[in-house]
TrEMBL record:
Compartments in which it is found: Cell membrane
Protein name stated in the entry: High-affinity branched-chain amino acid transport system permease protein LivH
Any one of the GO BP annotations: amino acid transport
Taxonomic source organism: Microbacterium azadirachtae
Entry GO terms, CC: plasma membrane
Taxonomic superkingdom: Bacteria
Length: 291
């Protein structure tokens, strides 16, 4: 029983990390129809700069982690907004060009990070409590999983409230449905779309900092690895469905944890098989809308 509980909660923690990355992908695609393959660059840059700021401010403490998270969020938002302004804005409704540009940015980003910080992982210091465990019904749960779950829940609630309860959220949803009509009312929809990118980048930035806590290191390939699972989560949950991304994140991570433990480390293979099964049975994903 304790083993099952351990796998469930650690799966929830990993799922929370997947959601922080996938939420930006799902939000940007759902509201703007852009598949952003450079999303991992936002995450990795935020993780590196967050780590640099945190270790200089107060390394290995909660204050240092808080500074890292704040820097990561700001960096992720700024680089995402700049990407939309300089690259994506000219390529709306041109999906092949979008894919080529964002894939190219992703490859260039990894090369740049390797040139600055090297190719080897850089191990970080984190608050002592996050390196410890909490015993729950006989299962020793790593404390950093609780932090991940809390942050993912806060991000999900914040995005939903923003889209449903704020003026800009209303403009964004209206602009997606009928951009010409909103523009005719004198509202600059382009600013709202830049804001969507910034929100997605901020979530990725926070995810990058928390990924460094989860894995214990930062590296140039951190975003690339997580981006693969983020895309799997986004497709399984349904392209454009934030709720679907949240549900799929938990399902994928828990399945991965159980398969790794009971099926000899085959978690990644099982996840890919699950992706294929969902695409065959329900191509639009678990909670995706019909085209």
């Amino acid at each position: 029983m304790s083993t099952v509980l351990l796998l469930l909660i650690t799966g929830l923690g990993l799922g929370a990390l997947y959601f922080l990355v996938a939420s930006g992908l799902s939000l940007i695609y759902g509201l703007m129809g852009v598949l952003n393959f450079a999303h991992g660059v936002f995450l990795t840059l935020a993780a590196f700069l967050g780590w640099e700021a945190g270790r200089r401010f107060s390394d290995g403490t909660w204050l240092g982690l808080g500074v890292s998270a704040l820097v990561g969020i700001v960096v992720g938002a700024l680089i995402a907004a700049a990407t939309e302004l300089l690259l994506i804005r000219r390529l709306y409704e041109r999906h092949i060009e979008q894919a080529l540009v964002t894939v190219g940015l992703s490859l260039a980003g990894v090369a740049l990070f390797e040139g600055i910080w090297g190719t080897d992982p850089i191990y970080i210091h984190k608050p002592e409590w996050l390196s410890q465990t909490t015993t729950l019904l006989g299962a020793k749960i790593p404390n950093d999983r609780f932090l991940l779950i809390l942050c993912a829940a806060v991000v999900l609630a914040a995005i939903v409230l923003f889209l449903r309860r704020t003026r800009y959220g209303l403009i964004i949803r209206a602009g997606v449905e009928n951009r010409a009509m909103v523009t005719a009312l004198g509202i600059d929809v382009r600013r709202s779309f830049t804001l969507v990118f910034a929100i997605g980048g901020a979530a990725a930035g926070l995810g990058g900092v928390l990924a460094s806590v989860y894995y214990g290191y930062v590296s140039a390939h951190l975003g690339s690895v997580l981006l693969i699972f983020a895309f799997i989560v986004t497709v399984i949950g349904g392209l454009g469905s934030l709720t679907g991304a949240a549900v799929a994140s938990v399902l994928v991570a828990v399945l991965q944890q159980f398969a790794n433990f009971y099926l000899g480390g085959t978690g990644d293979l099982v996840v890919v098989i699950a992706l294929a099964g969902v695409l065959l049975v329900r191509p639009r994903g678990l909670m995706g809308r019909k085209a």
